[in-house]
Specification:
377 residues; 2 domains; 12 strands; globular
């Protein structure tokens, strides 16, 4: 059992008159976290709905307030798991929070932000608090004092990823079997089931093309030629993959903000184990040609988790020029620019004269990454 960082943050928001929404990929522990949150309540004070169950979905879909009142009864905590499957869930939640206010607490989980957050955006304006639950972060698995253990297990985490069940397995074979199952079923489940994807094979082909380009700028036009579908469909599928927590995008840094929209993006995977499963490569790092890209993806994903969980607000970018000067990650915080370059090998990176406009610049290796993803800043 891993201690999830957002657990305490969620309990501190109980009974404040807001719907609590927990979103994140499938199999990251949203349901487990929900049951942990229930432990402070007696059994009679809990009303649980599992919306993978059609009868539970039916009870919550398009019902009036009187029916919902009788359905909830005297329960103080209402937990709705996989709520994105309920038709018009936003209207149902609005009825509940407007009527009960801070007398009861409603917790909702969803594995598709496109279905859950988009469909609750308007009815729950000012009525919700959203928490993200990602695959396990290094901060949740280790501490600064446990740094030697992280180094020992780091290669396994990069190759097989950080999904809770995967990370808890004792053998590489078990880890590989589990992450392959995740990659072949769970990550596509919501997309295929709810988004009217007419060509699932093309989506899989696109995902593989993206997996082979981590750490590189992605051209939608080139992807269109590779996958053999139009550019608008590429954009739509990438948005679906992003809103279903498979990938995320990093935008380019430029001093001319008007140019950002037209420039290329980088695309990373939330979990490097999923990425490796997509391309079918679980080789150890010393026999791989993509170790640099994997390390970059792993660290940027870990940094993203760290910032979200610790509520550190920064804008993130990458930077590259036509003459191939580049910085893997730039963070803009309080008017300051901080640059990071990710190098798996321990060779010291030199600061380039062309990036003297940065306020700080660090080369992040396997020997010094703890300050970026473990220590509260």
């Amino acid at each position: 059992m891993y201690k999830r960082i957002i657990k305490q943050k969620i309990t501190s928001r109980f009974f404040k008159g807001k719907i609590i929404i927990i979103v994140g990929p499938r199999q990251t522990g949203k349901t487990t976290l929900g049951f942990e949150l229930m432990k402070r309540f007696s059994k009679n004070d809990i009303r649980l709905f599992n919306c993978d169950n059609p009868s539970d979905r039916e009870q919550l879909a398009d019902k009036d307030l009187e029916f919902l009142r009788q359905l909830i009864g005297k329960a103080k905590l209402i937990f709705i798991d996989e709520a994105q499957k309920v038709k018009n869930i936003g209207e149902t939640l609005k009825l509940l929070v407007d009527f009960y206010k801070n007398k009861k607490q409603v917790i909702v989980t969803g594995s598709s932000s496109l279905n859950l957050l988009d469909n609750t955006q308007e009815p729950l304006t000012g009525r919700k608090m959203v928490f993200n639950l990602f695959p396990l972060s290094l901060q949740e698995m280790y501490s600064d004092e446990n740094y030697s253990q992280i180094i020992k297990e780091l290669e396994s985490l990069i190759i097989f990823g950080c999904y809770p069940e995967v990370a808890s397995q004792s053998s590489f074979e078990e880890k590989e079997d589990l992450v392959q199952e995740l990659a072949s079923s769970y990550i596509y489940k919501d997309i295929f089931g709810f988004q009217d994807i007419k060509s699932p094979d093309i989506l899989v082909k696109l995902l593989k093309a993206l997996a082979l380009q981590i750490g590189s700028e992605v051209s939608y036009s080139e992807l269109s030629n590779t996958v053999d579908i139009d550019k608008k469909t590429i954009e739509r599928y990438i948005q679906l993959l992003e809103k279903n927590f498979v990938i995320f995008r990093l935008k380019p840094f430029t001093k001319n903000k008007r140019r950002e929209i037209s420039k290329l993006r980088k695309i990373y995977f939330y979990d490097t184990g999923i990425r490796n499963a997509v391309i079918g490569n679980f080789n150890m790092l010393d026999s791989r040609k993509d170790v640099g890209s994997l390390w970059e993806n792993f660290m940027i994903a870990e940094r993203m988790k760290f910032l979200v969980y610790n509520k550190i607000n920064v804008d993130q970018y990458f930077w590259r020029t036509y003459d191939n000067n580049e910085i893997d990650l730039i963070e803009e915080k309080s008017g300051k620019l901080h640059g990071y370059e990710f190098k798996w090998n321990d060779k010291k990176g030199a600061r380039r004269k062309s990036v003297d406009w940065l306020d700080s610049f660090d080369v992040v290796t396997k020997k010094n990454f703890n300050s970026l993803v473990l220590s509260k800043q």
